[in-house]
């Protein structure tokens, strides 16, 4: 694949990605996920109760839910807080539901016990791929929090059946690109976000032509490119957990 990207990456290359443990010390588990210039704090908090609707409907086990926000200074032009508008914008609602769905796809809520695992993803700096960075970091934060439950003997077994990560792919000037930065994302003719487990099972695929169309062949190429990046992300997640003495 040709080198045509503004940051010098190959078309099939991820941005530099790092995970830093513990940016939110009061959370049960927290990670600062960096995808290039995009930075997201992902924090997991354990609440020893479940939502009222679960009790009312007789639903057993625990629950996992997520919230997402972009801090006002995370973008070039200040982004007003949702609270100043009196409601969440549609994009915020969409992304936090996506984070929750992605994590619930790999967790056995029965094994979580009567606990709610809150996932909070706060974007410090946005340069494309904030939702994919959030999901990838959120899994690590959740795994750290669950380790505390295990260590404290509050649950008997690890409820996470697999890992989950996310990455973007897109078509720009006819070229398939992996892990789009904002300068690429804003001009891409086609934009996909792909969520996958560590064992290679798709969780969700979001894709659209931005006033453009794409062929079946291009769709397959984009999914193959996403799968390549997601395998690399799963490896980085494993390395992070191994470094911090956690066994999946």
Task: Write a brief caption for the model.
The protein is an alpha+beta fold and 248 residues long. Helices cover 32% and strands 28% of the residues. It has one domain (17-243): Ribosomal Protein S5, domain 2 (2-Layer Sandwich), CATH 3.30.230.70.
CATH architecture: 2-Layer Sandwich
**Largest sheet properties:** 5 strands, mixed
Low-confidence stretches: none
Helix content: 25-40%
Number of helices: 6
CATH class: Alpha Beta
Shape: globular
Task: Indicate the radius of gyration in whole angstroms.
Answer: 18 Å
**Strand order in space, largest sheet:** 1-2-3-5-4
Which structural category do the helix and sheet elements fall into?
alpha+beta
Strand content: 25-35%
Terminus-to-terminus distance: 34 Å
Name the CATH superfamily classification: GHMP Kinase, N-terminal domain
- Quote the average pLDDT: 93
CATH third-tier fold name: Ribosomal Protein S5, domain 2
Number of domains: 1
Number of strands: 9
SSE arrangement, N to C: EEEHEHHEHEEHEEH
Description of the structure:
The two termini are 34 Å apart. It contains 6 helices and 9 strands. The chain has one domain (17-243): GHMP Kinase, N-terminal domain (Ribosomal Protein S5, domain 2), CATH 3.30.230. With 248 residues, the chain is α+β, with helices and mostly antiparallel strands. It has a 5-stranded mixed sheet with strand order 1-2-3-5-4. 42% of the residues are buried.
């Amino acid at each position: 694949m040709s080198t045509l990207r503004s940051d010098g990456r190959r078309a099939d290359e991820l941005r530099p990605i790092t995970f830093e443990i513990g940016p939110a010390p009061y959370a049960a588990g927290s990670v600062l996920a960096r995808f290039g210039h995009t930075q997201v704090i992902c924090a997991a908090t354990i609440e020893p109760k479940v939502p009222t609707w679960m009790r009312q409907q007789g639903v057993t086990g625990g629950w996992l839910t997520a919230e997402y926000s972009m801090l006002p200074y995370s973008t070039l032009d200040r982004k007003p807080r949702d609270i100043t508008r009196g409601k969440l914008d549609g994009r915020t609602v969409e992304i936090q539901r996506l984070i929750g769905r992605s994590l619930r796809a790999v967790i056995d809520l029965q094994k979580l016990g009567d606990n709610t695992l809150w996932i909070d993803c706060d974007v410090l700096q946005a340069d494309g791929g904030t939702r994919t960075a959030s999901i990838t970091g959120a899994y690590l934060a959740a795994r750290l929090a669950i380790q505390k439950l295990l260590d404290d003997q509050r649950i008997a077994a690890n409820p996470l059946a697999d890992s989950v990560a996310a990455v973007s792919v897109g078509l720009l000037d006819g070229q398939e690109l992996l892990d789009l930065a904002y300068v690429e994302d804003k001009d891409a003719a086609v934009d996909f976000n792909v969520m996958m487990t560590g064992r290679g099972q798709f969780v969700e695929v979001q894709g659209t032509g931005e006033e453009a169309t794409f062929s079946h062949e291009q769709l397959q190429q984009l999914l193959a490119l996403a799968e390549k990046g997601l395998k690399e992300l799963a490896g980085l997640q494993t390395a992070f957990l191994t470094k911090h003495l956690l066994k999946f």
